[in-house]
Design a protein that fits this description.
The structure is a single chain. The chain is elongated, with a radius of gyration of 19 Å. The longest helix has 21 residues. Helix content is 63%, strand content 0%. The protein is an all-alpha fold. The protein contains 10 helices and no strands. The chain starts with 28 loop residues before the first helix and ends with a helix.
Amino acid sequence: MARTTSCRDLNRPDGTVVKRIMQAKVSGDVKASGQTGVSGNASARILEAARAIATREGVGKITIQAVAREARLSKGGVLYNFPTKQALLCGLMDQMLSEHRKIMTRLPEQHPVRTLRGHLETVLQSQDTCDDLSMAILAAAASDPRLLDPLRADLTGDLERILTDTRDAEAAMIVVLAIQGLRFQRLLDLPDGGADVKKRVIARLRTMIDELE
């Protein structure tokens, strides 16, 4: 019977294997491999292999076969955890969301608008590989918008916290939109006014965040 998964419930970076799927069917490669199951811990290894390929050769070189070689697994072993390249990109997005949460935990608990500062620091600390992966996910989402469902869910919860943690919801929303603008300026390599202007803009955003209560 074909294995199916949901973008929201894909394998998490901690290796948990969830069996529901986004109407993506495993091809005959899994059966051909003679492999009916792979340890859930392999999912983290597979994601690490995909990121290594993206760093070394570019996101365009991420394929199921290439990831299998990099992770030293059979193609069927990769397909058991991630039935399609789209599913693999979903797993990578889950991993990036997890990394965002780790950045958040390093911020002072007492900060009045900790969630908002966390979003700014995530943009500032993102690496070129993460930006490339984000662009690949956005490109894939053009044909299947459900790929972005985990991101939408996370942002919805964060936005609720941001707007309720301050008495100036309008100013907080302006900062949110500015941070999103910074993210897409970087992803799309748009003009940023130069390094000096950008540095001052970031300093102003930090000040605005600190003044929100």
